[in-house]
Amino acid sequence: MPPRRRRAEPRPRLWPYILLFLAGALAGVALWAYAPDLPRELLIQRYANEHSKFIEVAGAHAHVRDEGKADAMPLLLIHGSLGSLQMWDGWVAELQDRYRLISVDLPGHGLTGDWPRGEFSVEAYADFIEVLADTLHLDRFAVAGHSLGGAVAWTFAVTRPERVSHLILVDSAGFPREGGELPLPTRLARQRLVGDVGIYFKPERLVQRSLLEIYADPAMVTPERVKRFAELQRFPGNRQATLIRARTQEPLDPSPLRRLDVPTLIIWGAKDRWVPIADAFRFQNDIKGAKLAIFEHLGHDPMEEDPKATAPAVAEFLPTEPPPALPPPQPQTAEPSAADQVVAPAIVPEKD
């Protein structure tokens, strides 16, 4: 009788172990990348200073600094997307002997955080600026805006022309992107699962990459600056506001720029890789009488990258005296009704 062959033992299945390893690796990456909000009090202690004050503005607990000469021309400074009022520190240092300089963290930015209104569009921010001006008892004032803040500034000037004496746009948003395609971060944010999860990843690496694109000089991307940008994104409410803005902000309509009739200065970094320098000339063309100052060696944040070079352009453009208040509107005289009008005959008969 021939010997029986032994059955070959089945090979152990590897795929469960592979899946388990991949799941563990993914969980480890997620735990490493996960970055919850930082405590509000910690960040206020770290990034507020002696000029900081927190005031209620349209329901937001707004971080505001009011510096410089109290009796001089008020200049309201509006930062861009993911920025904060610290971006104006260089101009404040250079111009505080000439102007009253008011900077603010917009809702969803810096140390202001969430806004009960729940809207973070350009139009909503223009409403916020109006309430802020009323709260600070500003009648007429100059306004400067950078990037997204530039769009807020010119939208405010278009819709409230009686409030704005002078307008300064710094590498401002305003015109559609070439080709009409949304930026990659915005497209990712609009993907529900990707956006909802992605906002909780550590922002340091993305911040460093963005800052290397923002500044023409890589030396500006210091560990301290990267840390400040990244930590302020983790202020409670800021990342959620960024996600809402990315999902709801419609493309801007630049056609109202042609209606502007206010002295305007356009400041631009020629090495801006985020907003093309061609847009600077489009603003100059659309805004009647606008002046343009281009800085050849600066990037998207020229006021921060070289305040000593850019602030003199502001000083040359903007008077130091506060603008006169506009006269109150005259009450309209009511037109007499038909019943009140006495109609004389076309021909007066002669008396007998």
Key features?
352 residues; alpha/beta; Rossmann fold; 13 helices; 8 strands; globular
Q: What do you see in this structure?
A:
This protein is α/β, with parallel strands linked by helices. It has a single domain (56-317), classed as Rossmann fold. The protein has helices at residues 15-33, 40-47, 89-95, 122-135, 148-159, 184-189, 192-198, 204-214, 223-233, 238-248, 278-286, 302-305, 307-317, and strands spanning 52-57, 60-68, 74-78, 100-104, 141-146, 164-170, 264-269, 291-295. The protein has an 8-stranded mixed β-sheet with strand order 1-2-4-3-5-6-7-8, sandwiched between helices. The chain is globular.
Report Rg.
28 Å
Instruction: Give the N-terminus to C-terminus distance in angstroms.
Output: 161 Å
The third-level CATH topology is Rossmann fold
The number of E-state strands comes to 8
Number of separate helices: 13
Mean pLDDT: 85
Q: Largest sheet at a glance?
A: 8 strands, mixed
Helix content: 25-40%
Q: Structural class, please?
A: alpha/beta
Order of helices and strands: HHEEEHEHEHEHHHHHEHEHH
Portion of residues in beta strands equals 5-15%
Name of the level-1 CATH class? Alpha Beta
Poorly predicted tracts of residues: 21-32, 338-352
Strand order of the largest sheet: 1-2-4-3-5-6-7-8
Count of structural domains: 1
Basic shape: globular
- CATH architectural label: 3-Layer(aba) Sandwich
CATH superfamily membership:
Alpha/Beta hydrolase fold, catalytic domain
